[in-house]
Amino acid sequence: MGGGIAVLTWVFRSFTVLAWLAFMAAGVWALGLHRGALPPYTGVLLLGWTGVAALWGRALTSAALRQGPGRAAGEPEPAEFPGTAAVWLRRAAALLVLIVASAALTVIGTASGDGTVRAVKEAGPVVGTGTVAEVAQVRVRYERKTPKGYRSTLILRTPDGTRITARDVETLAEPRPGKTYEVLWAPSAPELGGFADPRYGVSKYLDDRWGWTAASWGWLGGAAVVVLGIMLPLMSMTGTRVLHRLARRPLPQFVQAAVVTAVFVGLHPVLTGAVDRNLASSPIGGLALLVTAGAVLVVAALRRDRADR
Question: What is the pTM of this model?
Fold first, then answer.
């Protein structure tokens, strides 16, 4: 009996480490995808599904370890509590992977650009200049109800006379005929149109190397501010002993595995290239993970308070 519990405990911890390593590696890999990297992102896919499988293995093992109404077999009694430092070290690891995953989900949604960029790259892209021959459509672009420029559909004429359509061109000044912009297009398939980004340029879409950029660090920093700002107060409210117990209780593990699986199922078509982006490959995907983690802590704290009364 004792030997079986020891084996299950070792398996439980192994699944925990495997899930952490897989998701951390997938997140770090995704954060290094440049705007020119086209899907499928096989490495992120394999690592992500490995992490999902490990989470389910962890949940199932925690259920096997469970005995009695209030404690998992092998879970230390209060006298054997590992100490605040050990619990917070585990929580720090959980926060780190949550931060990295939240930032990575957003980067994946912007890595390869929109459908036009991808189609042009697959047809053989070049970066050239295009002169506005016609402004087909123009509208004011708003951010938080404040005008921030224009979003237009432009007919551009390249130096060799080819006319290409560039949609959703964002400019600070209203575009007019005769204005010249840098454009990404495929000479072999001008019917695909072109992509122009006067504010930031289009050459970055030809860069398919791997490596972190300022944008990668920016997304990571933003995710850290949000995650830590929400989770640290909740963890303090919950208490280290409750956090320790939560790590082995089956229900939180199954909830966590189910939510992560749902997010990754949604992310799968983006990673394979079936779609450009969706809610999973956006801040919404990271928010789903954050809300789940926060809700588990809130419920645990409420149950503790009721038990203390």
Answer: 0.77
Task: Tell which residue, 181, 186, 187, 157, has the closest CA to residue 168.
Answer: 181
State the angle between helix axes of 214-238 and 84-110 in degrees (0 to 180), rounded to the nearest 10: 140
CB 101 within 8 A of CB 292: no
Q: Do 164 and 151 touch, CB atoms closer than 8 A?
A: no
Distance CA 193, CA 115 (A): 11
Max Cα-Cα span within the chain: 82
Which of 249, 280, 277 has the alpha carbon at shortest distance from 262? 280
Residue 270, burial from CB neighbour count under 10 angstroms (0-12, 13-18, 19+): buried
Rounded Cα–Cα distance for residues 264 and 279 (Å): 11
For 236, the token pair is: 């303090």
- Which backbone phi and psi does 130 adopt, to 5 degrees? -135, 130
Query: Residue range 211-236: average pLDDT?
Result: 89
Over residues 267-281, the pLDDT tens digits come to 998 888 887 778 888
pLDDT tens, residue by residue, 255-269: 999 999 999 999 998
Classify the C-alpha dihedral 71-72-73-77 as positive or negative.
negative
Can you read off the two tokens belonging to residue 129? 């200049």
One-letter amino acid for residue 193 of the chain: G
